[in-house]
Amino acid sequence: MSRKLKISILLLAVLVIHVLLSWGYKRVMHESQLMKCDREMLSLPAKNYNLIAGNSHALSVQTEYWENSHVIASYGEEIHQSYFKLKHILEVQSSRPDTLLLSFDLGMMHQLALKNQAHQWYWNKYESSRELAPFASKKFEFYSHRIVSGIFPYMDGEVEVYDYFFAKKDSTQLMRKSTEIKKLDEIPPLRQLSDTCLKAQFSPCGIHFFEALLQLCKENSIVLALVRFPVTPHYYWSQSTCFEPEAYYTSCDSMLQKSGVNFKILDFHDRYEEEFFRDPHHLKGGEIRKEFTIEILKELHFSH
Amino acid sequence: MLFNSIEFLVFFLAVFVLFAIGGKWRWLILLGASYFFYMAWKWEYIILILASTIIDFLCGRGMANSPDDTVRKRYLYLSIISNLGILITFKYFNFFIDSIESVLEIKNNIYLNVILPVGISFYTFQTMSYSVDVYHRRIPAEKHLGYFALYVAYFPQLVAGPIERAGHILHQFKNSFQLKAENVFFGAQLILWGLFKKVVIADRLALFVDPIFNNTEHYHGASFALASFFFGIQIYCDFSGYTDMAIGLSKMFNIDLIKNFDRPYFSKSISEFWKRWHISLSRWFRDYLYIPLGGNRVLKMRWVLNIMITFVLSGLWHGANWTFIIWGALHGFYLLAERFLPQVKLPSFFKILLTFLLVQFAWIFFRANNLDEAWIIISTIFSPDFKLNLLYSEIVKTGISELNFVLSALLIASLYLKEALYKVPKPFVLKLIYLILVLFGIILFGIDNSKAFIYFQF
Predict the structure, then answer these.
(1) Which chain B residue lies closest to A1 (C-alpha atoms)?
(2) For B327, which of A65, A119, B164, B366 could close a Cys bridge (C-beta 3.0–4.6 Å)?
């Protein structure tokens, strides 16, 4: 067999496998929260609805108890990603929610790893590289990651594929044992507060996109409900080992006041005991999430 | 700029295109690319390479032009002192000061605030070998500064070897630059396999190894034993992966680099291990230190001393830390034991296993952050605190996912299988499947935040 033929066979085989893997991965991802978000976004009405966005903490709000609500939150979602989704809804889909319920976490404005985001292939369709690039420390890696993950969507998808085929489907099996959730009294001695650390919580990128999101809400008369979701004390303190959480939220509050947006902050971070958590920062499913959703609605003065 | 980055891929493709159209200026393209590659890391340190290049070139010319042995020797000393001077200043100065201070129990805070120039141990050793070879008239002194500069800075092997000899590579620069399809194909295969070993195996094993070696107080014997085993495989895949890529990249320019690894974990003795592991460094120490010290043609006690000096310095070459010195000394001790202990006839499998275990034990010193931690790890492994029953929970504690742990085990097994079957002829279909597996293995299972190669720090 000639070398040219061998190389042709190799290239053809690579192409076929690439196409099959891309197709297979998209199939696997079909049921993921990310793709559910896409379907949810496509089903949004033009107006008169409530939108739940942010990271996985926001998934504890149950849409079946909140009339006209839609959830587009996803795991590990950053503030700039929530901003780009909202922008897409407003500008591309010409849809406008009345209320935006957003997770309001300690790390939401932290320095982001823009050059190596998970599921970049997915975010490529929402994010504007031009808007994000000024905040990337390594521009070349920032752009190359976007291009490469667009070509090979399955490149960082081994966990999803593994979970799809092998992980236990019963979500209660995934819950951690309560003994694994460390107690509050193990944490404080490790804390060393510093102003520098507090300032580091507000990265230029985080601030920019938080303010941009506030601006979108203001321009479109969207009521912004910022929720400090329930977490275990262990998780709460592990997120703030070197700064005072209340000082962080005070700084956020001044940004909110300055923006002129119609907002409300709901603080549930220490509402539940550890037994109600499936892991350090996610509530268990079922009744507790229903109860929590009703509490939020009461605070927002919505009927349920 | 790491070999395992998109940045390097773009750089290499650009260099390769320029090389293809470069004609008689190919050496200049590679020299420019090599300096660019080095400066991409820290541009200021190019001065060190330039200084080393010019001094050694001039010393070589000086030796060639002088019939007087005393003058020749002076040029040799000038070359060695300047290279060792650079090496000691940037790599060992703080370590020596620190060691002196701790022995004398004083604190002067005389430290040099410098970053270790990447690859410094490799290119200084390479240039020193040139000067010694010219002095002993093993090779003629190079007349062309450009070719000599390329010998010092050739980017595929600049930062982590193989440590080339002038006699092996300089004539290739002059005669062999060609573009050949079979070289490109063979080189690409080596690059892919090297990249696979680095980003799929080594970086995955690091997910388990690093948390354990960096938090010794939180783990028990079984976890340490497993982490030590994993580290042995990690460092092999990391370093040999780099070397495969270097050889593959160079092959594309039709330049053959020397073989640096030859399935070292199949060695039946420690002496055989050192003929298969980091071959270019072992040969360097053999030719430029061990043999000049007298080698084995001396009295037994002197031979013992020669072995220990060679291995301790080999350990020190790896890093300015007592852990490396102990690692080197331990290997020296193994060699002496191999020579002096009564020989027991064992089946090959047990010889390989025994050698492997001894090498793994020594890796503990190599990987530990300091001697205290190395001692904690070893004493815990060999104590009743082994606690095999805690292994699973401690694996979970490292944060490595179930998937990555299972993959790690499978990858180690496949690595061994590949190396065991290296002599078996493979038909085209098998080669095709292998290439596809390696390629998609890198895309699917390559660790996203791939780390720098371990040997870059040396």
Answers:
(1) B428
(2) B366
